[in-house]
Structures
1.
Amino acid sequence: MNTQTHGVAPLSEAELLDLEALLRARRTELEEDGARIEEALEAVRVAREDSTTDDEHDPEGPTLTNEWSRLSGLRDDLAPKLATVDGALAKIAAGTYGICTRDGAPIGAARLEARPEAELCIHCARELEARR
């Protein structure tokens, strides 16, 4: 693995602490989103069990089936987001956070503030994007 820096300084202890706090806040936010989605799914489930609810002819909004599908999709999208945040937090604990997984260069505080779960330095991210 190449250990170039691409002119980017490694994270300071203060930057690392700030980014860890940002990741922990993001994790809390995702957990709260998950709880809200689960509550909404439960409400749809209860409404679907209500025999007086007309699922296909509700002029006020989407059908219960459509709402269930939408909420289920949102819930399913949370799992990989949580895994990514948890992976970044694990890297902090292991002392490998902020290091590009492709070339070993520092990722840089500015990039990590924008995308705290980033695994690639901006140089590698741009290089891979150009190949697509």
Note: The two ends are 23 Å apart (CA to CA).
2.
Amino acid sequence: MTLHEAIQQVLLQAGGKSLTVPEITKILNANSWYSKKDGSDLKSSQVGARIKNYPHLFSRTNNLIGLKSTTGIIPKKSTPKQKQVSVKKIVLDDNLMMKVLINEKNFKSIADCEQNIPEAPGLYAVRIKDIKALDTVFLNVLAERNDTLMYIGHASKSLRKRFLEEELRAIGHGTFFRTMGAVLGYVPEKGSLIGKSNQNNYKFAPDHEQEIIQWMEEHLIVNWIATDTDLKAVEAKLIKEHMPLLNIAGNPGVINNVRMLRNKCKAIARGDR
């Protein structure tokens, strides 16, 4: 990744929030998106110079740096006749995006980053801090894989709505939230899906939802990337390659116990048990 691409990604991760050059530099030195050949830390002067050299990508207002476009399109300057000639697209390579999303150094606690999750489409990933917090069956799977990856998903319209509200806060019908609750041993109220048009979207009792949310805040770390690329295709590739513990569809390493626990919850909510 080039330095200006790394700066772009820092600002994308900030969810539209502008940052100072020292703040951007500190973030870049803490992760591995860009490394100098001699291995030394970046200096603010180097980051500031790169930003200055790419005025079509970055804006500067009162020492705060922002992206000139969060939608991926930046108009070039008009000709003297005020005719628009072309556009400049911010395009991050799919492989680069996947590395940024999965890199463990980029994950943070839910509390530390929830205010920055943007109203934009993108991809998200969830890891667990310590696999010992899981039941033995799931602990052993992650230990064997030498990984902590729990889930990968995508938000076609809004990361804030899909990822934060539905998946992490149980506002709506989050697939990850339902699966996480089932794996933790929670079950929905018996017959709660009877008469409902969707016979899969079971919900837990409100007090149980709060317990699941509290457990996730204590044990999980998250990361996301705001992008309008082919989300489903990138998500499918990531799931196939990394086999997250709780993904079922398209996962070659799907855990049968996960499927069984979800089916148990569905059966109870449908009144079959």
Note: The chain has two domains: 3-89, 94-269.
3.
Amino acid sequence: MKVLQFDFKLSNYVITKLAGRWMPSVFWHPKLSCLKWQQAPEPELPNDDWVKIKVRYGGICGSDMNLIFLHDSPATSPFASFPFTVGHEAVGVVTETGKNVEHVETGQRVVINPVLSCESRGISPKCEACENGNESLCYSKTKGDVGAGLLIGACRDTGGSWGPYLVSHKTQVIPLPEEVDDLNGVLIEPFSCALHAVLRNPPSPGDHVLVIGSGMIGLSVVAALRALDYDCRITVLAKHKFQGELAEKFGADQVVYLSRGETYVKETAEIFGAEQLKPVIGPSVVQGGAHLVYECVGKKQSVQDSLRFTRSRGTVVLVGLAGIIDSIDWTTVWLNELAVKGCFAYSTNMYKGEEQDTLRIAVDLMKEGRVDLSPLITHQYPLHEYRQAFQTVLSKKSKNVLKVVFDHNKTTTGG
């Protein structure tokens, strides 16, 4: 089968890292890049606790693009095993089950929780993080029945959704009810990232919330806040008009569009009833702001804005997977006694009075009709058209791009 795999080679890394500044397409060049479109065997079940899934749709995540563009910190490299088939957002159909699998059967539509934690790795007793329901923080990401990997889609033994098949431990497989179609199914994983951030860091009644970023995760944060019926006012910072319109559709009260200069700073400060102050040099200082900020971009400016738009004793939640960023001014953190919290992936969250898997909560919300994210999928490509897909991801404004997915229902025999 043909798959898209990432295989780290130092020479390819250096060449594409240098040349990519001027020619982004070098990051998926067939010979020069670390990303390879190549033949690979179907992944095999590691043991009788695993399931094989034929992928119907595989999403292109922002973290996948960070991987391709070599933006990831080298600190994450020990938690991957090469070469791995990329892709952790998936909806598909079960084609094979191990002898110990009982809750799903062949032919059943499913989604996966891609986190490779103690249970999926066959490690007992579980580490402290997994024992406490924090599987995304598992201490055993390099041990057990499969190779190193934070997730399916970063492990050489599991396959990924950028290939026709993947394998998943039985505890990671979630049956998909009829009420949830495939296009919502492939978005359950990214929606769960936002859902986890909200459930772990909920607004208090009457809070004014700021969501920075209106891509897939930012819009999902807005959708999660409204689906869970939190009593809060939501303002969104958006880059493009079509993003802002979707933010309003999902329940934002106000949208501020980013602009050159600091016009957006004045508008945002006014919404929060905050004061805009001018220092002797440098960008404006904002006195006042949101009670709670979800930063969903992970870039220098978005992180900086998250710190200056938060009121004293407020909370910043970093959802956008910021990596190595120089020259962030942290003054407001100690000056305003801010709480800055990280949030990664999903695990278990309190919902309806009990701890539940975040992805199962997402499935329930979709089943109940409280959220429909399918309008966020703006472009679909067969896997062999990956070059066009990546170019589309880079053309957000000109093509009104939000979410791009690979459609495995179309032929993938091309080169």
Note: Residues 188-200 form the longest helix (13 residues).
4.
Amino acid sequence: MTADVFSTAEVASDTATVRAAAVPEILGRTRDLVQPALRAAVDRLDEGSRAISAYHLGWTDANGVPTDGNGGKAVRSALAVVSAQAAGASAEMGVPGAVAVELVHNFSLVHDDLMDGDTERRHRPTVWTLWGAANAILTGDAMLALAQEVVLDSGSPHAIPAGRLLAETTRRLIHGQVLDVSFEQRDDVTLTECVTMAGGKTGALLSGSAAIGAVLAGAPPEVVDALALFGEEIGLAFQLVDDVLGIWGDPVVTGKPVYSDLRARKKSLPITYATSRGGTAGRELAAWLAGQDSGDDADLARVAALVESAGGREWAVAEAARRVATAEQALSAIPPGPRADLVAIARFIAGREA
């Protein structure tokens, strides 16, 4: 990891990029294209896994009654569709990849909620709180297996390379989660290690999502590599923004309790940056992290102020903007239409509030 991971001065002027952003039209357009295929894929699951998946995806309530709930932003599936178009193919060529990455993403969310003990997602009870740990694990596993099945059944002559990409992506995602869990037992996590973890836990799937449609379309390696780099960079931007929201996000918007990452004592990017900088605030924050008592809201507000005083919030916002700028530069050879859609997605990621 280069030293510019730690720099804020060169990107300070770009922080205005990371503000509340309107949902780009491309997300709605690709969601309408992908949703029928995603529902058809979930219908392949056994009855129990199908019902739990439908709830988690926001299609039903806990009793199986259809709802108009929020199934998430569907950023990853949008990237997969647009990546096929970036390779000169139709949007439809990217749909199997879009379904697959959406399934992998939701497999990881179901498992993450269980591992983190989170009781609420998107303003609703999490799967494990309703159906128990065993069913959460099995449903996540079913979605992951189904993702590979969808790619291999895509009909593309490039289904096997796409399936390999999906498997490698999932392996990297799991490694990132392994690192994240291991950090809970350590008080000496460095910023470089934290960036590596985020690159696996979040960057890997966004990178794979931005490349899988192009792989299904048979794009040349230079196109696939450019899209993968784009996805990797916006993945890190996504995690940086997520970590800011995990401390300072509005619970009404995020659907998570105030100071949620502080309650969990997560070694998130802004927190790790703050402790790495030293100084009075950084040392006091490190001492708090090494303790056991999470404290009440007043204490957590004090800790959040320490992170901010040590520069963690400012750095995370600036670094997210820098990552988005780097991602956009990777698209120089991509056709204008798909490039504009990818840039819109990247800027939405950096400016979202949930």
Note: The chain is about 70% helix and 0% strand.
